[in-house]
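Suppose you are handed a protein chain with no further information: no name, no annotation, nothing but its sequence. What can you learn? This example shows the usual starting point.
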Amino acid sequence: MFDLAGMACAAKAVTPALVWDFVEGGSGRELSVDANRSALDSLAVVPRVLRGVSTPAPACTLLGTRAELPVAIAPMAYQRLLHPDGELAAARAAKLAGVPFIVPMLSSIAVETVASSAADLWFQLYWLRDRGLTAELLARAEAAGCRAVVLTVDVPRMGRRLRDLRNGFALPHDVRAAHFPVNQAETAQRHTGDGSAVADHTREAFDPALNWSHIEWLRARTSLPIVLKGLLDPRDALQARESGVDALVVSNHGGRQLDGALPAIDALPAVRAAVGDGCEVFFDSGVRSGLDVLRALASGAHGVLLGRPALHGLSVAGTEGLLHSLTLLRSEFEDAMVLSGCQDVHEIAELRTAPMPDRISRRGVIA
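A reasonable first move is to predict its three-dimensional structure. Written in structure tokens, the prediction is:
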């Protein structure tokens, strides 16, 4: 396989249909899923020439620690649906590739076990109705060596993911939310014959009343960097910076929350302009190639979070499969760096971007 699209095809061939729908599906009519890709493909990069770039340097610093690529593995739930070793296999691949791995709160393997990978770990939180469990998970993440907290803020409730609703999706008996007590986690495994058991579990567990005062609560309980994931409006980004958060993730949750939300790449420049150098800005939602990483950095991001393509590699061959996906991504990114005249990630930030002219068709023919 020569690109991440090939890995996706291979993953679809070996992944059960219901699980594939759970991974690939978006909310509603999946308008935002499609729009994320259209927006990225509509973003042209203006390359520089005569720059003497022969050996690009893709390494960077993310939240104060060196990463071999400006990439982290996004937090994605229940990875044992894709491979028996789930999040542990994924973290091992991240370690080998030299990039951070974000342990999902809805992980199917506990953070303490994932930490045995020795990867650079960040820990994702959703805001729970059970404040005691929230505090407990935060303490467990710190004790396990996680060095950042990623609070996902765009899920007051799970979006209406019609594929899961139609499929009556529920977790199999051998996959569960490892960070939850059994009596709470089993909701996601309970087949009701109609609707999504996973959505039922999040409806029970997540507190939709999350607001800015809770950021203060979180800051008072940890010295770790705090990352807010799921912002699109520069007004929210400015308030986040004023609230003292360390980083933001510009994201529409991969099209899985508000259907019709602005594509994240279209929101990125305004968010970066709003916060300036006050905090790091990451990007996710629709990344499918090294060129997409370059596009995001040229649009103002410090790094990107890789979502579904990571799961594709995991599904194909566990640690080796995900490592292959990351190797492909690195090759594509380095190629894009050389061809755009960028020696390092700092030079990518100086590139210009522009809308891809509508008159150019996919075949390169004047329309």
